[in-house]
Amino acid sequence: MTRTPVNVTVTGAAGQIGYALLFRIASGHLLGPDVPVNLRLLEIPQGLKAAEGTAMELDDCAFPLLRNIEITDDANVGFAGANVALLVGARPRTKGMERGDLLSANGGIFKPQGKAINDNAADDIKVLVVGNPANTNALIAQAAAPDVPAERFTAMTRLDHNRAISQLATRTGAAVSDIKRLTIWGNHSATQYPDIFHAEIAGKNAAEVVNDEAWLADTFIPTVAKRGAAIIEARGASSAASAANAAIDHVHTWVNGTADGDWTSMGIPSDGSYGVPEGIISSFPVTTKDGKYEIVQGLDINEFSRARIDASVKELTEERDAVRELGLI
Ligand code: NAD
Ligand code: LMR
């Protein structure tokens, strides 16, 4: 059976994440091995030539699933008919720069892109914001797209989720594939809270397996939360291949579903669950099925977790207030 190609728009296509991302989308890792794709690469004018070079290389791969590539610096063209939009293009944080400084620099990008999505994307559009500060950029884009259901705007915390699984596997000697139900709560920032109290390692409670609250508080949480900064320090540039991999994971899971008995972490508009103020885009434990996600309900939140979730949520509400003051939402 010939399937209709899915239109996938990638912004910042000429950047380092874009370069790690596009070949995997085109080879079927985003949506599945039997789903053809049309790629739309959205760049700023200075990025168009490099995007053309990447498109030449994509052609040279002769990917059977890749139907066509369009390159543009016009957001209305870039998002026309988009079914999936990966908003990667942003100003990356550089050495010594705080994420908060990025709010105003990036707000101007995400408001017009949200409007262009509103006016041009397909009815089933799914949006993943990768560009930082991802949660608040997603809020800005979502606010500019009143005709698109709010829940279609998501922010990436899957990289944090994957980092936390990897750290936990290293500490316990478990296989990555044995670790389930880990949660990232809050913001994709140093305040995020990787929660292992509901996680399982080969069916056993992860916090009980670790049984070391000092390691949790002083090593695990800061290592995961500050990993982005550590990569910048080491590479002199922010994470790229691992970020692209997480973007692939995020959309693949959203479209294709979580495994039975497991969940993932996504930055999504809060419905007020777990005391997170409605509307802010915060990371939650979610299950996905048939292209929709649901927050995992009924988890007991202990005091240790509560304080950390609240701290990250407080940062998100401050970011929301800041962009509101800037007239971006
Ligand atoms: P990069 O500088 O290599 O590439 C960014 C690209 O975006 C450039 O090619 C630039 O021309 C383009 N761009 C800028 N403004 C644009 C616009 N308005 N429309 C279209 N394209 C535009 O950066 P990168 O390393 O690819 O990182 C991209 C973003 O992802 C950064 O904000 C970075 O902080 C963020 N990031 C997020 C996570 C996460 O886990 N959420 C992880 C890593 C990086
Ligand atoms: C990451 O988590 O690797 C990035 O978000 C770091 C950054 O601030 O760009």
UniProtKB/TrEMBL annotation:
> What Gene3D superfamilies has UniProt attached to this entry?
Lactate dehydrogenase/glycoside hydrolase, family 4, C-terminal, NAD(P)-binding Rossmann-like Domain
Listed under catalytic activity are: (S)-malate + NAD(+) = oxaloacetate + NADH + H(+)
Q: What is its EC number?
A: 1.1.1.37
Sites where the protein binds NAD(+): G12, A13, A14, G15, Q16, I17, G18, N106, Q113, V130, G131, N132
Task: Provide the active-site residues from the annotation.
Answer: H188
Looking at the record, the residues that make up the Lactate/malate dehydrogenase N-terminal domain are 7-146
| Cited SUPFAM superfamilies | LDH C-terminal domain-like, NAD(P)-binding Rossmann-fold domains
One MF annotation (Gene Ontology) recorded for this entry: L-malate dehydrogenase (NAD+) activity
* Boundaries of every Lactate/malate dehydrogenase C-terminal domain copy: 157-323
Q: Cite the binding residues for substrate.
A: R93, R99, N132, R163
Keyword check for NAD: yes
User: So what family is this one in?
Assistant: Belongs to the LDH/MDH superfamily. MDH type 2 family.
Per its database record, what is this protein's job? Catalyzes the reversible oxidation of malate to oxaloacetate.
What is the recorded name of this protein? Answer: Malate dehydrogenase
Q: Which organism is it from?
A: Streptomyces mutomycini
Gene name per UniProt: mdh
